[in-house]
Amino acid sequence: MSNIQSQSAEKPQFYLEEDHHPEGSTNLGFWLYLMSDCLIFATLFATYAVLGRNYAAGPSPADLFDLKLVAINTAMLLFSSITYGFAMLQMERGAKQETLFWLGITGLFGLAFLGIELYEFHHMILEGATPQRSAFLSAFFTLVGTHGLHVTFGLIWLVTLMVQVSKHGLIAENRRRLMCLSMFWHFLDVVWIGVFSVVYLMGVVG
């Protein structure tokens, strides 16, 4: 009887008290997410390839796109990728303030990219080039707008990580999160190069 009472008095443990995070599990999961995002953008690119020439007697890419403005916008996003790379280098050195500085510069370039894109959308809508005007414009706004939403989410993620780093420093968890955001940000650059080449460049030159 006493043995039963002593066993019942013991506190059962159904979990490990220390935090256990399998090495590489976050990176694997995030790569799987990026692959699913690749499928989404591949579908949008395929849709644009099919519908991109259906103008319905409306404006064509040559009538709407300002390649100089789009080139500046592309430079903003590419510069943001470079500055994020600088932030990762400072993270490897353990330099907290320098990491935050370059993350902030990255955020400013990202905001500039979104601002120019919104200006372009606003200008097109004022000219009557709305998504419902033609299949070309529907495909264009869907593809470019989806990319813009990803950049917006990336900026929110960036600000959140800057707060986390400023509070807790470059701990292992924050380093892992910064690595995931780095993959996401560079992925958006690659997608945008495809958008610039297929939608804007080929639309105006072709």
From TrEMBL:
One GO CC term, this protein: plasma membrane
Any Pfam family hit: COX3
CDD domains the UniProt entry points to: Ubiquinol_oxidase_III (cd02863)
Subcellular location(s) per record: Cell membrane
Membrane topology term: Multi-pass membrane protein
Superkingdom field: Bacteria
GO MF terms held by the record: cytochrome bo3 ubiquinol oxidase activity; cytochrome-c oxidase activity
Transmembrane segments: 30-50, 70-87, 99-119, 139-163, 184-205
Keywords on record: Cell membrane, Electron transport, Membrane, Oxidoreductase, Transmembrane, Transmembrane helix, Transport
Record-linked InterPro entries: Cyt_c/ubiquinol_Oxase_su3 (IPR024791), Cyt_c_oxidase-like_su3 (IPR000298), Cyt_c_oxidase_su3-like_sf (IPR035973), Cyt_c_oxidase_su3_a-hlx (IPR013833), Cyt_c_ubiqinol_oxidase_su3 (IPR014206), Ubiquinol_oxase_su3_dom (IPR033946)
Domain Heme-copper oxidase subunit III family profile span(s) in chain numbering: 1-204
GO terms classed as biological process: aerobic electron transport chain
NCBIfam families, per the entry: CyoC (TIGR02842)
General function of this protein: Cytochrome bo(3) ubiquinol terminal oxidase is the component of the aerobic respiratory chain of E.coli that predominates when cells are grown at high aeration. Has proton pump activity across the membrane in addition to electron transfer, pumping 2 protons/electron.
Quaternary context: Heterooctamer of two A chains, two B chains, two C chains and two D chains.
Family assignment from sequence similarity: Belongs to the cytochrome c oxidase subunit 3 family.
Protein name: Cytochrome bo(3) ubiquinol oxidase subunit 3
Native source species: Aliirhizobium smilacinae
Gene name as annotated: cyoC
